[in-house]
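We modelled each protein-ligand pair independently. The example shown here corresponds to the glutathione entry; the chain sequence is given first, followed by the ligand as SMILES.
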Amino acid sequence: MDVVDRSDRLEVLGGLSPSLRVPTLVLDDGRPLAESGAILLYLAEGSDFLPADRFERAQVAQWLFFEQYEVEPKIAVARFFLQMWPGERDEARIAKMRDASRHALRRMERHLRDGEREWFVGGSYSIADIALNGYTHVADGAGIELADCRRVCVRCRIATSNAHSTTASRRAGPAAPRPAGRRSHRARGRR
Ligand SMILES: N[C@@H](CCC(=O)N[C@@H](CS)C(=O)NCC(=O)O)C(=O)O
């Protein structure tokens, strides 16, 4: 799908995605599901990527909503205008999006730092980490420096490598790369 020329959106995604956006998942039986957070929740059901505990599941949802409201509309929009938009740049709008992005990244960093957390929710990698990795790991493409967000950066690199070897690494058993000096509850056998 072209993100600049949206002329075929209705033709391709009509009836599949209410917002006519990608990603849109179409199941084997033809049922469509749009919105990255909903897709992650659907795919993660019954796996280690979605906690069984009710409160932790709600915390995962909290971070999915945070990503959709605080991260994606800021980093993605700034990056879109810097890297993809063929028209004139709206520098004021980009600056505003960058400021909002930095604010969101600081909140994420603080959450990890203050809770001495290895992962965003509970003691193991979940779809909250996957969702937050999505645009954070390309924030530099939006002109957003990550120097003050060491913990977020570490998780982004880990999340990226995990995302490329998800099921295989989980089935085969080798431990996913982790931030230096800490081990997860999962690694300690607490899950
Ligand atoms: N909230 C949606 C946002 C999806 C989104 O913005 N997708 C972009 C491409 S990455 C798109 O389809 N943009 C074209 C448009 O907005 O029409 C999600 O997280 O799935």
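Strands lie at 24-26, 32-34.
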